[in-house]
Amino acid sequence: MSDLTVLNPVAKPAGYKFKLAGRLSDLKNVTIGLVWNGKHGGNLAMQRVVENIEKRLNYKLKTVEMKDDFPFAPFFIEKVSATCQAVIGATGD
Fold it and tell me: Is residue 63 part of a domain?
């Protein structure tokens, strides 16, 4: 019989802690950023989420599609923060 050593390939968490964003009371008159990194299918996933939210709320959302390479550059994050009150994000694949 042989011994087998099993290694865990999962990295330790970086330990970043973020304060959760407050909930919006309503999505009317809110700009929602559709933020993705350009990977194939990410935009389609976000559009499906928007379609389902609109169907549930029974009104059209105001959205803006925003794309950057990942990891997002600090100036891109600032642009998203200045433009949008909410974000739907996706990567794709």
Answer: yes
